[in-house]
Amino acid sequence: MAQPVVTCLDMEGVLFPEIWLGLADKVGLPELRLTTRDISDYDVLMKKRLDVLRTHRITIHDIHEVVRTISPLPGVPEFMAWLRSRSQVIILSDTFYEFVQPLMEQLQFPTIFCHTLGIDREGFITDYFLRQNDQKRHAVSALKSLSFRVLAGGDSYNDVSMLQEADAGFFFCPPESIVKEYPQFPVATTYPEFQEHLGRAGGFSS
Question: Residue 204's pLDDT is what?
Answer without folding.
Answer: 87
